[in-house]
Amino acid sequence: MDPWLIDFGWLIGSFIFGIFLGCLTGLIPGFHVNNVALIALSLSPVAVGIGIPLDAVAGIIVACGTVHTFLNYIPSALVGAPDDNMALALLPGHRMLISGQAAQGVAYSARGSQMGMLMSIPLLIVARLLFGENPGLGLYEASREQLPWILLFISIFLILTETTRLPWPVWSQKITQKLKWPLKKPLEFTIPMGRLSIRRRYDAIDFRLGESSRVAGILVATAYFLLTGFYGWAVFELPARSPVGIPSASLLFPSLAGLFGIANLIDIYVTTSEIPPQEQNWDMPDPKPLAVPTFLSAVVSSVMAILPGMTAAQATVVVMSARNFWGKLTDPNYIPADFEHGTQPGFEQMPQMMVFEGMEDLAEDDRLLFQEALSEAGATPDLDLVNNNQQRDLEIIAILSSVNTAVTVMVLGFLYMVGRPRSGAALALNMMYPIDIWNAVEPPADFVRLLAITVASGLFAVPVMIEVGKGMLKMHELVPLRNLVISVSAFITILVWISTDWIGVGTLVIGTMIGLMAPRIGIRRSHGMGVILVPIMMYTFARELDAFGFA
Q1: DSSP-assigned letters across all residues of 134-180
Q2: Cα–Cα distance between 280 and 103 in angstroms, integer?
Q3: Do 406 and 524 sit in the same domain of this protein?
Q4: Do residue 193 and residue 291 come from a single domain?
Q5: Domain limits at 196?
Q6: How many CB atoms lie within 10 A of CB 173?
Q7: Domain count, the chain
Q8: Shared domain check, 332 and 184
Q9: How many CA atoms lie within 13 A of 304 on its CB side?
Q10: Fewer C-beta neighbours within 10 Å, C or N terminus of the chain?
């Protein structure tokens, strides 16, 4: 048999087996691609011994990682068990679920992942010219030296995007109630910014602390960010060991499952009794309206591939904040997308019933069930279908999925550009066999082969994701919502115990209590990603200080 035919057979075999493993890692909370990569790395000598080439094992890892980024939306949004990259998909995904449009959420996620993957491929050339060498500017090492400051800047930016207004403590309001001095002449100024003009008029110097202050909201968001950060530092420092011998046990899964998963499931249990009938609209959306946001997502993914701790959650906030800012500059009547906000203090049940077209076509029982679910959705703005436009939720889902998949492509590219792994899967590839660095104009043949597997896996994952989504919605129809919430919470707890023992269960409980705080205070849940960012900043700043002899 011709050698090329044998190689092609191994390529197809690794492609198929990698897709199967990617489906498992994407759908089973806590079973990450890193687990597959570590197992594949440990078994690689055995594979070589029985005649399986290492490039086939590498193909399995790459295909698994790609399919994982497509399917991990489903357990995040339809089950409530997120990983670190899809934590923000919970709220818009659940809003689509209780509005009967979960199928469209799955379709938009599939389209977003598909477009993010395809749009990141040309960005590989740009990244090669910027960060690679011969030819290239070689900016990689310079960016590494500034890493802690870049992470700090991004963290501050994310906190400053918090728009929630909160009251100052009563005692501070009393102390400052007289700190207002009228001006003899009002102070006015105008700052033109594109089509938008910022006008300000001040009649007095006012240092009073009042009932509604954005500064108070930002300070509370900062405190919550630091709280989750020190919680994350403890998570990374505590030892983790699986009672059944699962390799690479980590407390990151129980911490994220508590902050974003169980906490959100509790809110759903309290606010919603039943899921309404789901509209079976599985049509893929038109890619044209998503072209600009998904391209920006791919650009942000290029940054994420360099910065540790910068996940798809932060990238989504950055992209959506930039989108809102640009919308204000170009259109004075633009209404910003209020993405991923928590419950506002004093928020009450909506007095009116929401009206949707087409409800008259439903059966009487289905219509009553639908109306009950829509009414109960008003118990929190997180699930409020009036205050959260569905189209914007779908766009957020597409952006998040786009970033999540584009990162996989960029991480693979950076492995071959600068020889530095930025994920567990890339680390396994780097340890498995020598990486042929992209030092010439044309890319290495091995990189082209793995990139082809990535693209093929992503295209194949779209119909798989649609079929799996149909199966999950069928399960929602058969099992009452509150029973499903209890079952999923128990399932996540069992997974946590299997992977990290009782210390993981304790981490899960603490994370859940912290996760319940954000929506009740009124700030965004995304500030909980300090659980990853703060420890990484602590480690990187300590390393920089150590270079000067201070640590």
Answers
A1: SSS---HHHHHHTHHHHHHHHHHHHHHT----BPPPHHHHHHTTT-E
A2: 6
A3: yes
A4: no
A5: 168-210
A6: 15
A7: 2
A8: no
A9: 32
A10: N
User: For the whole model, what pTM was predicted?
Assistant: 0.69
**Residues pairing with 204 in the sheet:** 182
Instruction: List helix spans (H) across 382-529.
Output: 390-418, 424-432, 445-478, 481-515, 517-521
Judge contact between 204 and 181, C-beta under 8 A.
yes
Torsion angle, CA of 94/23/434/308, rounded to 10 degrees? 10
Please tell me the predicted confidence (pLDDT) of residue 415. Answer: 86
Pair 264, 406 in one domain: yes
Residue type at 278 in one-letter notation: Q
Residue 53 identity (one-letter amino acid): P
Residues 198 and 259 reside in one and the same domain: no
**Count of CB atoms situated within 10 Å of the CB of 430:** 15
Q: Given this model, what pLDDT does residue 386 score?
A: 46
Q: 385: which residues sit within 8 A by CB, 6+ positions away?
A: 95, 98, 99, 354, 374, 377, 378
- Whose CA is closest to 86, among 120, 60, 112? 112
Residues 401 and 501 in one domain: yes
Tokens 């912290």 locate to 514
CB 519 within 8 A of CB 380: yes
**Model confidence pLDDT, tens digit, residues 7-36:** 778 888 888 998 998 888 777 655 667 667
Q: Does residue 56 share a domain with residue 13?
A: yes
Mapped onto helix, strand or coil, the DSSP state of residue 184 is: strand
Give the single-character DSSP code of 213. Answer: B
177, 210, 243 - which closes a domain: 210
Q: Among residues 183, 210, 237, which one ends one of the domains?
A: 210
Residues making up the chain, counted from first to last: 551
Write the single-letter amino acid at 270: V
What the block records as the tokens of 126 is 């740009």
- Contact status, residue 94 vs residue 381, Cβ threshold 8 Å: no
Residue 265's nearest CA partner among 514, 516, 458 is 516
User: CB–CB of 162/527 below 8 Å?
Assistant: yes
Cα dihedral sign for 191, 197, 202, 207? negative
Q: Are residues 376 and 446 in the same domain?
A: yes
Give the dihedral sign, CA 99/100/102/104.
Answer: negative
Answer with the residue of higher pLDDT: 146 or 373.
Answer: 146
Structure tokens at 278: 């789901």
